[in-house]
Amino acid sequence: AEAAGVAEGTIFRAFGDKETLISAAIARFFDPQPFRDALRAIDPDEPTVDKITQVVQILRDRFHGVIGFMSALGMEGGPPPGAQQGPEHQEWLAILGQIFRPDELIVPADVFGLYVRLLAFATAIPPFNAPRQFDVDELVTLITRGVLPPDAASTATTAPPTSRKKD
């Protein structure tokens, strides 16, 4: 109430009780629509690296906010199993398909999205970043260039470790 500049009574008249207020805050905070809108705001005609940078930033911001919010409320664990499996929770991957042309990435846009989600999620969890924080530009470089020098990429194998031949 203090942060909003209104009396507590005003808030509780609107929400009834603290639990209802918290539930409304959680529902609003976890609403995926602002996230989807931010992705849709990316211009598909921008250079590929600029689009990748924006996707990484949007995902990082989302995860930093979610994890911070959950921490502030003392929430532990993730969503219930299967909670984010429906089409409405995968719509953001389809949006990436509208942002990136098929020839811009070496993987389908939805697979790219899953890769970026892994990085963004991991970098949003402070202990996973210890002892060093990675910024968006570093993550974009990792995504776009990998960890091998340019001349090593042509000799590197991309087969999973379990399928490589043993000498």
What this model shows, in words?
- The protein is an all-alpha fold.
- It has a domain at 30-76 and 83-147.
- The protein is built from 8 helices and no strands.
- The chain starts with 7 loop residues before the first helix and ends in a 22-residue tail after the last helix.
- The model is unreliable at 163-167 (pLDDT under 50).
Fraction of residues in helix: 55-70%
End-to-end span in angstroms? 68 Å
Shape: elongated
Oligomer: single chain
Q: Could you name the ranges where pLDDT drops below 50 across 5 or more consecutive residues?
A: 163-167
Average of per-residue pLDDT values: 80
Report the structural category: mainly alpha
Strand portion, in percent?
under 5%
The secondary-structure element order is: HHHHHHHH
Please tally the β strands and state the result.
Answer: 0
Q: In angstroms, what is the radius of gyration?
A: 20 Å
Figure out the total of helices: 8
- Main sheet summary: none
Summarize the structure.
With 167 residues, the chain is mainly alpha-helical. It has eight helices and no strands. The chain has a domain at 30-76 and 83-147.
Give me some keywords for this one.
single chain; 167 residues; mainly alpha; 57% helix; 0% strand; disordered C terminus
Write the layout of secondary structure elements.
Layout: H1 8-15, H2 18-30, H3 33-40, H4 48-72, H5 87-99, H6 109-123, H7 126-129, H8 136-145
Helix pairs in contact: 3-5, 4-6, 4-8, 5-6
